[in-house]
Design goal:
- The chain is of the alpha/beta class.
- The chain folds into two domains: about 120 residues, Response regulator (Rossmann fold); about 80 residues, Arc Repressor Mutant, subunit A.
- It has eleven helices and seven strands.
- Strands 2-1-3-6-7 form a five-stranded parallel β-sheet, sandwiched between helices. The chain has a two-stranded antiparallel ribbon with strand order 4-5.
- Strand 4 and strand 5 form a beta hairpin.
- Helix 3 packs across helix 7 and helix 9 packs across helix 10.
- The protein is globular.
- The C terminus is likely disordered.
Length: about 220
């Protein structure tokens, strides 16, 4: 099986590597310490069985990273592994397409059980935490709107957030600039905003720091 461990702390990557190889599970494990490396790996590494993703690392903070990676590889199972493990963050991660959520304080046994469950096609969340329902109507509306975007539209939105121009996005995605303009228009309409800047601001609201403030 092929796994990517994405975390900027080498010691924790080692702990996850140990968990993944328990129970004689044969694993090809690739590690990444920053978000740009993660994006490169999922584009180039071929079939990946599971990505274990920290919410905060160089190049990204919060659930916007999850949104970006799901747009690049919609079928890729992604399990969030984070110290930010409040009910709101867990619930929102699952709503945005994560296949599971593990707290960094979880035991090796729990991590291994979670990985096995996700590999079997299940969704994993800490059983002892009541996830409740979304209390903030703005965030609820935002998540619903993001989920209406196609993978390509979501990639365009993520690239807008990186400050890329239409011409640069067109080059990266190997399409025409006119196609990108159409995608941008669709993104603005679906997010209910009038400008690229407003779209980026809306996307930034799914950062973990913003979630903490809104919760």
């Amino acid at each position: 099986m092929k796994f990517i461990i994405a975390d900027d702390h080498p010691l924790f990557r080692g702990a996850l590597r140990q968990a993944l190889t328990q129970k004689s599970r044969k694993a090809d494990i690739v590690e990444a310490g920053d978000f740009d490396t993660v994006k490169k790996l999922i584009l180039e590494a071929g079939d990946i069985d599971l990505l274990l993703l920290d919410l905060t690392m160089p190049g990204v903070s919060g659930l916007s990273g999850l949104v970006t990676l799901k747009a690049i590889q919609p079928a890729l199972p992604i399990m969030i592994v984070s110290a930010t493990d409040d009910p709101a963050t867990i619930r929102r991660a699952l709503e945005l397409g994560a296949s599971g959520f593990i707290s960094k304080s979880a035991s090796m046994e729990t991590i291994n059980k979670a990985v096995s469950a996700v590999l079997a096609g299940d969704i994993w969340a800490p059983q002892e935490i009541d996830l409740g329902s979304e209390p903030d109507p703005e965030i609820s509306d935002l998540i619903s709107r993001i989920r209406t975007l196609t993978p390509q539209q979501t990639r365009v939105l993520s690239m807008l957030a990186e400050g890329l121009l239409n011409k640069q996005i067109a080059y990266e995605l190997s399409v025409s600039e006119a196609t990108i303009k159409a995608h941008v228009s669709a993104v603005l309409q679906k997010l209910g905003v009038d400008s690229r800047t407003q779209a980026v601001i809306r996307l930034s609201k799914i950062g973990s720091d913003s979630f903490q403030a809104l919760s």
